[in-house]
Amino acid sequence: ESERLAKKNPSPLSFQDICNKLKNNEFKNVVVMCGAGISVAAGIPDFRSANGLYKQLDGYELPYPEAIFDISYFKDKPHPFFRLSKKLFPGNFVPTKTHYFFRLLQKKRILRMIFTQNIDTLERVAGIKDQYLVEAHGSFGKATCVKCKKKYGQNFIKPFIFKDQIPKCVNCDGVVKPDIVFFGESVPKRFRIQKNIDFPKADLLLVIGTSLVVQPFCSLIEEVSPSCPRLLINRETVRRFSSEFNIFSQILGGEGGGGFKFDLEDNYRDIKWIGECDDGIQKMVDLCGWNQEFDEILKER
Ligand code: APR
């Protein structure tokens, strides 16, 4: 089986190959999947690293860390979430090189769509247009009354949060919750629609700064065509990119742990650059010869 594939795929693509193809403008539909790792350099902790957010919640008396983003827990006890919101609220953070690299892809008209799990709106702050952004887990940008569903803007809830008060609806006195997707809530309609449009058309998938453990987002990587290379830039490899895992799921007939399909081809099209996001991005910019354009964009920070 693997000899057959080795003949079919003469050699796995390398990081250098991807950059050469980018440099020669061979990719026209780059889809990005990103997570908290890209904002760590901006000063926002990620969730699951040793010093991540889920390890900083002892004083919140939670039954378990993710409860802070659980909708049923929130409806019973909204305080912990709003207390955390003070630390995460947009406005005090500057986007990173990685966010500005997305801006460069947008400028070069090869960015098809960014699917972000982040709620910090830093993609928008870096100049990514609405049409190129799917905020799969929502964001602080808007808010909704949990009782009467009245819509609010970011500026309505901000004063409450910074005065340690629960934002209350002007209509019905219900709690006004930021439009962040909590565990137990469904992902935005835009996510469900755009994923079916953009992933089949992707000619390069860039997965960056995510542990790829949260559904339905993480299984998006299987939605690209078999010929679409998948480049991971992350501090650590993740299960869905690990060839051992692919082989494992192949042995189990493709339904490896986590109930998703893989086949050996994945090993030939999965490229991993393991390290800091901003370092991986800088390396890409250097190998693509895009330094001047990138530096111009960085100057606008
Ligand atoms: N450079 C590269 N990788 C990094 C960096 C960095 N500076 N900092 C962290 N990472 C990596 C971590 O090693 C980890 O693999 O980024 C990944 C972050 O993973 P998580 O903390 O699990 O964050 P994320 O994948 O975005 O979580 C997904 O979980 O709690 C929910 O809704 C929340 O959107 C979030 C979702």
TrEMBL record:
The keyword Transferase applies. The active site is at H137. Keywords: Metal-binding, NAD, Transferase, Zinc. Its cofactor is Zn(2+). The keyword Acetylation does not apply. Residues 8-291 form the Deacetylase sirtuin-type domain. This is Nad-dependent protein deacetylase sirtuin-2. The chain holds residues 190 to 490 of 526 of the full protein.
